[in-house]
Amino acid sequence: MTALTSNGFAQAHATFNHVWAALTLEELYRLGVRDVVLAPGSRSSPLTMVASEHAGLRCHCHFDERGLGFMALGIARGSQRPVVIITTSGTAVANLYPAVVEAKLFGVPLIVLSADRPIELLDNGSNQAIDQRDIFSRHTIVHHDLPPPDAEIKAAFVLSTIDQAVDQQRRTTGPIHINCRYREPLYPGRCLVDASDYLAPLGRWLTTSTPWSDWQDSTAIPGPKSEWETFAQHKGMIVVGRVEGNADDFQQAQQVVELSKQLGWPLLADVQSQVRFDPQNLIHFDLALHDVRFSAELANAEVLLQFGGRLISKRLTQFIAQQPWQDVWLVEPLPQRLDPDYCVKRRLICPPADFIAGLPEIPEQTPWHQLDSLQRRTSQLLEERCTTFSEVGVCHQLAQLAEGQLFIGNSLPARLMNMLGTHRQTPLRVLANRGASGIDGLIATAYGLSCTCSEPTTIVLGDTSALHDLNSLALLKQATQPQVVVVLNNDGGSIFHMLPVPKEGELLERYYRQPHGLSFEYAAKMFGLGYSAPNSLDTFAAAYTQALQVGVTLIEVTVPHQQVADDLKALGLAIRGEPREQ
């Protein structure tokens, strides 16, 4: 029987590698980690075995490291906790690169524990050995290359290394990479290694459940003080970008809505804002910016208050860049510039609720604008043109039908969901990978998010994005809540119809759009998912409503590749009052 300390930490382990692995994972648990995602591998056995035996850690598995990284990203975003990723050595680590890039740009607390060969096995032909030191380059906020476990190195070295790395992660949220070098043996032998003498100097750590060292942050966020009263006297507008989607962020986003009412300022909320479908939001502002009267009225704004960055609407970002603002404030908890057009005059690094709580009270002001009535015409035109079975029609309908949480893919789905929909009575949590805005790992990210949610999860993505992450359909069978995957299949990258790419000869089709001619019916069968292929808005609504009730369903929406470009072009012409091209 293995001897345990009074707090349950084992003093005997399979190998000395397992001793360091146990110290690492126990300290991470004490610092708040609850979820570990693992891919199979031999060199990572000490970490895998310890994680599987830890009573406080939930383990999630996937055979594809690229999908594994994005699953961890989703779990971390949904739980608002750091998530550990364990991989073996070699290209397994390199497959995490896209997820690590996204985590850095989005400020997601991933902790990569990569197993590695000892240094003497590098660059000499040893199997599965690559140089993993700082493999993620500038895309991590902390990197440590640990030496192989050695009884001559104090156990406190391992614990304090973890403590410092996690503290840096709390101050500058993003991914950590800890490279763990293990010499053989990697698996249990006949006898356990008694580490009681080695662990004894840890003293109190062995009898408590607190971390080895406590890092405190005493830095207070300065408030806007008296400048706010001057700022608030101007004609202003409020733009809301990404506000991450847990229950607390719904409340934070609602405080922004109340602030816009108090100030009498128009609210333009991105689909990632958690208040996109609130009645206070000018929900069709992206399309209404086609209307010169709407744009001219909005241009009367003198100051801009923005919460959250990474706006999806290109028309809105262009409008912001062209305005001669008297002042621009950006409130965002991530310490990143998030100012692509260099308009921001004051940068406040804090959550929206903290900023609003520090504001002095001002009397409620009468709205200075007529934007609601000017937007009404755009909304009417949109409703008239969303009655056909198309990507526009399906996305518009999905915005009303979706329940629980909606994860939107990049490329066309993000743009469509940001344009379409109407105000809702019930809130809808909407999330996206808009850090690097890649089309990889979207299914895995959505699955990870679903692991933290007791409601249904819907993902809407393009066909090329679905092909990029096809392996992650295998994860969905493990879901405990209904999962709906809506694939908009326009046979390739139809967004290129809307970009100024060369169209001579084969250039557009062969080198940009790259049609594939594939259907997802047999992919659904291969991975044991339900499947539906509606051919009208009514059958889509019926299939989607049924899919929300039980199991995992892939709904394939097959449409002509040119249709969405034509639909959006015609809608823009109608809003601008220009004749439709013949």
TrEMBL record:
Domain named Menaquinone biosynthesis protein MenD middle is located at 197-408
Q: Which GO terms describe its biological process?
A: menaquinone biosynthetic process
Domain called Thiamine pyrophosphate enzyme N-terminal TPP-binding: residue spans:
23-133
The UniProt record lists the keyword NAD: no
Q: Does the keyword Repeat apply?
A: no
Alphabetically list the UniProt keywords: Magnesium, Manganese, Metal-binding, Thiamine pyrophosphate, Transferase
- One Pfam family linked to the record: TPP_enzyme_M_2
**GO function terms (MF aspect):** 2-succinyl-5-enolpyruvyl-6-hydroxy-3-cyclohexene-1-carboxylic-acid synthase activity; metal ion binding; thiamine pyrophosphate binding
Domain (Thiamine pyrophosphate enzyme TPP-binding): give its ranges: 423-557
Which NCBIfam families does this chain map to?
A: menD
Q: What is this protein called?
A: Thiamine pyrophosphate enzyme N-terminal TPP-binding domain-containing protein
